[in-house]
Design a protein that fits this description.
The complex is a heterodimer of chains A (303) and B (407).
Chain A lengths: L5 E10 L2 E11 L4 E6 L5 H9 L6 E6 L2 E2 L2 H4 L2 E4 L11 H11 L4 H14 L15 H13 L5 E5 L7 H16 L4 E4 L3 H7 L2 E6 L2 E7 H7 L2 E6 L14 E7 L2 E6 L5 H10 L5 E5 L3 H14 L1
Parallel strand pairs in A: 3-8, 3-9, 6-7, 7-8
Antiparallel strand pairs in A: 1-2, 1-4, 4-5, 9-10, 11-13, 11-14, 12-13
Helix pairs in contact in A: 3-4
Chain B lengths: L12 H17 L2 H27 L2 E6 L7 H10 L3 E6 L3 H10 L4 E4 L6 E4 L5 H22 L5 H10 L14 H35 L2 H8 L2 H33 L6 H31 L7 H25 L4 H6 L6 H11 L4 H29 L9 H5 L5
Parallel strand pairs in B: 1-2, 1-3
Antiparallel strand pairs in B: 3-4
Helix pairs in contact in B: 1-9, 2-9, 3-5, 7-9, 7-10, 7-11, 7-13, 9-10, 10-11, 10-13, 10-14, 11-13
Classes of the chains: A alpha/beta (303), B mainly alpha (407).
InterPro entries (chain B): ABC-2_transporter_component, ABC2_TM
Protein name (chain B): ABC-2 type transport system permease protein
GO molecular function (chain B): ABC-type transporter activity
Chain lengths: 303, 407
């Protein structure tokens, strides 16, 4: 295992009678973008706060490589909390320099890095303005710069895309890709599943404090039940209902829509269809992450 | 990633605390409140000094006008007033009427007319006690001299001289201290400055804690530094700013008072200054963690008053009651006991040291108790702060904040 891999191992956290996290584990390798999705209150923020040491877990451990995380290592994480916050009456430049120093940068280093990020975020002219005097969009940029100014070894971002305008979403996406390309493990949570699907190498879906699905987006969607559309003009009604691992969703005229269980071989279905005569159309559709997520979450609520 | 960061400055706790403290200091020193506050208090002390100076120089001599038969006693009046410690400037007036109008206009403190045995005195509102005694003495002597002559005594003046020479032999158990007034004033001013400094900068600690909570910046900070580092840095930084202000105010006040001659007990004043600095540090650390713990219970600036007021009330109560008790009788039991209570000692002890003779063991005991209380309160305040500082939303109850597994 790589020495910089962020390992979250069996985290548990209870608030009174509420279980916020129930043996949540995941790993983010260097250079990997890990998307953390789940409904509100599923436990994403709690897990991230435990990684940062802002909250203590009841049990479980956060490791970097094999070693338990230390305060020194935590200072090398770039963190954007769900509740955004900066000193409202402190100038942008002073604020970023201060945060960089708290994260271990020397004074010179902190200034150099701050100037670089101010330029990147197009905030150079506002450097001496108080944060509270900036527009909301610019405040978000300062917030991102605050998470990145110390050139972190790990990025943990809670809803980094929420409240961003489209341009800022592009900047944020580019920054996340860039950091990952530089070998930094990146974890972020988001409700914008199309973004997660586009950006992430792997995702974890959390429901009621439990990690219910985890893996590469491709793996997850191909492992999930997929739908099959078959057009067989000569097939008798109910031709597919006896097939194992197949559920008929819809049968209109010659078109049949089937749902396949993950283990079902679609070639067997094709052979069955061909036995009825001509097959003019046969297409398999993988679910999108959004559909997958909806399925996973609905399964949970049915239990 | 342990040490792969390109930065070398590191995460040493001392460095972190110093960084936090420096932010507090630069932020606070840049505010208008610091400059104007300091200036206002220094100006207040300057005006006070000038006023005292003017009052003292004004009342140095007492202007007395004599008219009519009373002109004969002019020199005698001056002499006996001097004997009683009153510097009298006696002038001769044309008439009793003129005397009355000059007293009325404030040119004279008193106008005397009539025969020596039956003097009439006009004063504005009240007659100086010493002048009253001097005049009464002159009248009584005059009456006595006439009575002696009538009784056939050959040399009434010799008898009077003999009577005057008779003196009481007084042994004082507690010699009056001519400088007591000054010492009390120095003590009172220092007590006020300590009260002002501790309550102002203590409230700033609470305000700073609430500001970090309400702006949510605290979560970013606590992801990088430990709660105790953040709290200690804040307390040390604000404490130092308060100390700087105290030294500026008390130092300038001392220089002004000494230079203008208002203060002649400079050794007492310097000692009080030094004690003031020591007790400020003790008092600030005592209250700072209480203010920090109180502030951490709320998440909004609007709710701050409700948690800070009880702490401020203790300070106000200690100051108001303590200063009155101490000024009335700095050596008394009540003042002594109050100055030993840790919550009040920092405000009252320096004043008592200035105004009366406080034994070394009393100071040591008060300081020892205060240090003990600082340890207890820092532990308690730190625990509350640690548990409550990340709690957002409604005001946290004290008992909830003290529960061990809150966070």
């Amino acid at each position: 295992m790589d020495t910089n891999t962020l390992n979250v191992v069996e985290l548990c956290k209870r608030y009174g009678d509420v279980t916020a996290l129930d043996r949540v584990s995941f790993a983010v390798r260097p250079g990997e973008l890990f998307g953390f999705v789940g409904s509100n209150g599923a436990g994403k923020t709690t897990a991230m706060r435990i990684i940062l040491g802002v909250l203590a877990a009841d049990s479980g451990e956060v490791r970097v490589g094999h070693a338990p995380i230390t305060p020194g290592m935590r200072a090398r994480i770039g963190y954007m909390p769900e509740e955004r916050g900066l000193y409202p009456k402190m100038a942008v430049l002073d604020q970023l320099v201060y945060l960089a120093q708290l994260h271990g940068c020397s004074a010179d280093d902190a200034h150099t890095r701050t100037e670089r990020w101010l330029a990147r975020m197009d905030l150079r002219e506002r450097r001496h303005d108080e944060v509270q005097k900036l527009s909301l969009g610019n405040q978000q940029r300062v917030q991102l710069a605050a998470a990145l100014v110390h050139d972190p070894d790990v990025l943990v971002l809670d809803e980094p895309f929420s409240g961003l305008d489209p341009v800022a979403v592009d900047v944020m996406s580019a920054v996340l890709r860039e950091k990952a390309a530089a070998g930094v493990p990146v974890v972020f949570s988001s409700h914008q599943l199309d973004l997660v699907e586009r950006l992430c190498d792997r995702v974890g879906i959390i429901r009621d404090g439990q990690m219910v699905a985890q893996g590469a987006v491709d793996e997850l969607t191909s492992a999930a039940s997929s739908t099959l559309r078959v057009v067989a003009p000569e097939a008798p009604s109910g031709w597919a209902s006896h097939l194992t691992g197949v559920r008929v969703l819809e049968e209109v005229d010659s078109q049949t829509v089937l749902q396949l269980e993950p283990s079902t071989d679609e070639q067997a279905v094709l052979r069955a269809a061909l036995e009825t005569g001509r097959v003019t159309e046969f297409s398999k559709q993988r679910p999108s992450l959004t559909e997958l997520f909806r399925n996973v979450v609905t399964e949970g609520s049915q239990q | 990633m342990s040490a792969t960061g390109p930065d070398t400055a590191g995460q040493g706790p001392v460095r972190i605390v110093a960084l936090v403290a420096r932010r507090e200091i630069t932020t606070r020193l840049r505010t208008k409140a610091f400059a104007f506050g300091t200036l206002a208090i220094v100006a207040g002390i300057a005006i006070y000094v000038l006023l005292i100076n003017a009052l003292f120089s004004d009342s140095e001599t007492t202007a007395i006008g004599v008219s009519g038969q009373a002109t004969h006693i002019a020199s005698q009046l001056e002499a006996s007033a001097n004997e009683l410690g009153l510097e009298a400037d006696v002038t001769t007036l044309a008439s009793a009427e003129q005397g009355r109008s000059q007293v009325d206009s404030g040119e004279l403190d008193a106008a005397v007319s009539g025969a020596a045995s039956d003097l009439e005195v006009v004063a504005e509102s009240e007659l100086d006690e010493r002048l009253h005694a001097a005049l009464t003495g002159i009248t009584q002597q005059q009456v006595l001299r006439a009575a002696l002559a009538q009784a056939g005594v050959d040399d009434p003046d010799a008898v009077l001289g003999e009577a005057n020479a008779a003196e009481l032999d007084v042994t004082t158990l507690e010699p009056a201290d001519p400088e007591e007034g000054q010492r009390l004033a120095v003590g009172a001013i220092m007590a006020f400055l300590l009260f002002f400094g501790i309550s102002t900068y203590g409230a700033y600690v609470a305000q700073g804690v609430v500001e970090e909570k309400s702006s949510r910046v605290v979560e970013i900070l606590l992801a990088a530094v430990r709660p105790w580092q953040l709290l200690l840095g804040k307390v040390a930084g604000l404490g130092l700013v308060g100390l700087i202000q105290l030294v500026i105010i008390a130092g300038l006040g001392l220089v002004m008072a000494t230079a203008s001659g208002v203060l002649t007990v400079s050794d007492v004043a310097y000692a009080t200054f030094a004690w003031g600095v020591v007790w400020y540090v003790l008092g600030f650390f005592l209250y700072a963690s209480v203010f920090a713990g109180a502030g951490s219970l709320v998440s909004r600036q609007e709710d701050m008053q409700s948690v800070v007021t009880p702490v401020t009330m203790i300070l106000v109560l200690g100051f108001v009651v303590g200063i009155n008790v101490t000024m009335a009788d700095p050596g008394g039991t009540t003042a002594a006991v109050m100055s030993l209570v840790p919550f009040f000692a920092p405000m009252l002890m320096p004043g008592r040291i200035a105004a009366s003779d406080v034994t070394g063991w009393e100071i040591a005991l008060a300081a020892g108790l205060t240090v003990l209380m600082i340890l207890v309160l820092t532990w308690l305040g730190g625990k509350i702060y640690r548990n409550a500082v990340l709690h957002m939303g409604s005001r946290l109850k004290l008992a909830e904040a003290l529960r061990p597994s809150k966070v």
